[in-house]
Design goal:
Elements (H helix, E strand, L loop, with lengths): L1 H34 L19 H12 L85 E9 L4 E10 L10 E8 L1 E7 L10 E9 L9 E9 L5 E10 L11 E6 L13 E9 L4 E10 L11 E10 L2 E7 L3 E2 L5 E9 L8 E10 L5 E9 L7 H12 L5 E6 L5
Antiparallel strand pairs: 1-2, 1-8, 2-5, 3-4, 3-6, 6-7, 9-10, 9-17, 10-14, 11-12, 11-13, 11-15, 15-16
């Protein structure tokens, strides 16, 4: 009896579960059918070709083409004005473009330049980009040469910190001015203050614009790198195998960032060597410039040569002190960094002083070359004063007057040192 009751109960439970399952399936099907959107097929419409066709006709044509089979592809997309721009004037940005009229802001332009991309076919250009505004500045280093230029040299410099190697790449030279029509140039590279050793490039035959593309290596510690100076001397070899100096480039390393991912590429104009013999106490080269708008007097201390040291037993440390005077009264002074062990130090340092234009007739500049000694003592190796007629004569007066006559322009000259105070 109990077995029959159990069989009946199991049948009832199975029937109930089956009904529940059927109900769930029916519910899901009903829900899916109810959520399906109903589409109404729109009658095919022909896209108006008349230029005065309305915007509504264009929109209807787009909707009709949207429900067509995928194999039929719309060939063009008309230019449609957004609603927020209705009634506004279009600015004629390029020649030949259609200007929208106030009378009918919905009219599609008759003509106008079309985009060549298929995805934007039929779109009308309403503006243009001037490619000239996005060009990189043109490199004029090979075309713009100042008057009296004797040539220009290109090179690159890189320093390897771990190996303590200075890598110098000699690239090219242009517009050389040899003493004869034919020119066979080569370059000697010095790492000053050592002028006894140098590295030399190959000789390029019969060219005023040699292309060197050679690499050179100098072994130099990172501690002394900022005190070294590269010197490029460019020579011409004549038919008798004699060497003639065409010019030189002096490149101090102390103001340059040489450690990085890329090489530092530089070009410099060649300078003629000062062929005058050194004076008794040596010579100094510097530039002067006066900016009358800013009332600034600028001095660029370039280099000195032929210095006579006071004490030959020790390595000389030489620096230059630049002093501004007015009525022989001290106003202000500035000093260069010291250069060790060279009678021909290179500085290339710039100093600026405040000086009113009315003070130029009473002001003067004193440049003193000093050698450091034991303790705080110094030895005066030489001195030069430039200024107006009140204080100077000769080349020093000419340098001062030329600075005044050429405002905002650097005027460079050599001057002999003297020791009279």
């Amino acid at each position: 009896m109990s077995e029959q009751v159990a069989a009946v109960a199991g049948g009832v439970i199975g029937a109930i579960l089956l009904l529940i399952l059927i109900g769930i399936v029916v519910y899901l099907l009903w829900k899916k059918i109810c959520l399906l959107p109903s589409y109404e097929e729109l009658p095919n419409s022909v896209t108006p070709t008349h230029p005065d066709a309305s915007l509504e006709d264009q929109t209807l044509s787009q909707q009709s083409s949207a429900i067509q089979p995928k194999s039929i592809r719309t060939r063009s997309v008309p230019f449609i004005i957004p609603p927020k721009f209705h009634g506004r004037d279009w600015i004629n940005l390029t020649n030949g473009e259609q200007v929208q009229k106030d009378s009918d802001p919905y009219v599609t332009p008759e003509s106008g330049p079309r985009c060549s991309f298929h995805s934007l076919a039929g779109a009308y250009v309403i503006g243009s980009i001037n490619p000239e505004l996005y060009k990189f500045p043109e490199d004029k280093s090979e075309t713009d040469f100042p008057e009296c230029n004797i040539g220009r040299l290109w090179f690159s410099v890189e320093y390897e910190q771990e190996a303590e190697r200075l890598l110098v790449s000699l690239i090219k030279a242009r517009k050389l001015q040899p003493p004869t029509d034919s020119c066979s140039p080569f370059v000697k590279i010095y790492l000053l203050p050592d002028e006894r050793r140098y590295l030399q490039s190959k000789t390029k035959r019969k060219t005023l614009n040699p292309q060197f593309d050679e690499n050179f290596i100098f072994q130099v510690s990172s501690k002394t790198l900022c005190q070294r100076t590269l010197k490029f001397s460019l020579y011409h070899v004549d038919k008798q195998k004699k060497h003639h100096l065409l010019g030189q480039v002096i490149f101090p390393l102390k103001n340059e960032t040489l450690t990085g991912d890329s090489k530092l590429v530089i070009w410099r104009d060649l300078e003629a060597e000062n062929l005058e013999p050194p004076s008794e106490y040596g010579d100094i080269q510097f530039s002067l410039s006066y900016n009358d708008y800013l009332s600034r007097l600028t001095v660029v201390v370039l280099r000195a040569k032929g210095l006579k040291f006071q004490d030959e037993r020790e390595i000389a440390s030489v620096y230059i002190k630049v002093s501004l005077m007015n009525h022989n009264k001290f106003i202000k002074c500035k000093k260069t960094t010291a250069v060790l062990g060279s009678p021909n130090p290179v500085y290339n340092e710039t100093f600026s002083f405040k000086a009113d234009q009315t003070e130029l007739d009473t002001a003067s500049l004193s440049l003193s070359v000093l050698q450091s000694a034991e303790g705080d003592k110094t030895h005066l190796l030489g001195r030069v004063v430039v200024g107006p007629f009140m204080y100077t004569r000769g080349k020093e007066l000419e340098h001062w007057n030329e600075m005044i006559s050429k405002p905002k322009e650097l005027v460079k000259r050599w001057h002999a040192l003297c020791r009279n105070t």
